[in-house]
Amino acid sequence: MPAEYAGLYTMLGAQLRAIDQHLSSRAPSGRHDVLFSTELLPANANIGESLLREETWQAVTVNLDRFQGLGVCAVKVAIKYPVLVSGFPRSTEYLEFYKRVALELRRRNIKMLAQMTNGFREPAFSSLPVETYYAGLTWERFKREKRQQAEVIIREVRPDS
Fold first, then answer.
1. Which alpha helices (DSSP H) does the chain contain, by range?
2. Domain range for 93
3. What's the pLDDT tens digit per position in 93-120?
4. For residue 47, is pLDDT > 70?
5. Residues 139, 161: Cα–Cα separation, whole Å
6. How do residues 124-160 score in pLDDT, each as one tens digit?
7. How many domains does the chain divide into?
8. In a domain, 48, yes or no
9. CB 102 within 8 A of CB 21
């Protein structure tokens, strides 16, 4: 560490030790069902068809390796509507990807938390090709398809929550 930061390092270290000591003194005894979790960003459906590349799978496994090292117990996976709807392009490939993610999480004893929100339309936020799919989307069709996707996630992907 550069000498110019030694004082700052010492001060911050003392503050962190004091905070840790304070929290430790207030910690209730007993076991709690807390799962430290994070999001598995390389598996976020907003990255679109890039999700289906082997490089993406490598990023998934590297992230999971690091999460295990940190003690992460649960991972949120963003499965965006409409990637698992049967009429959406490449939906069967997306389904196989998410089933593979779920299997890998189970193998590592990490809980899978599925999030099913809508894919972004704006290209600045998403590469998921939903613009033409959303064209003419009615409320009734949206509700029907969103339910269909939820059922596919529950039945095929089988997340823990």
1. 6-26, 54-70, 91-107, 131-134, 139-152
2. 34-157
3. 999 999 999 999 999 999 999 999 988 8
4. yes
5. 26
6. 788 888 888 899 899 999 999 999 999 999 999 999 9
7. 1
8. yes
9. no
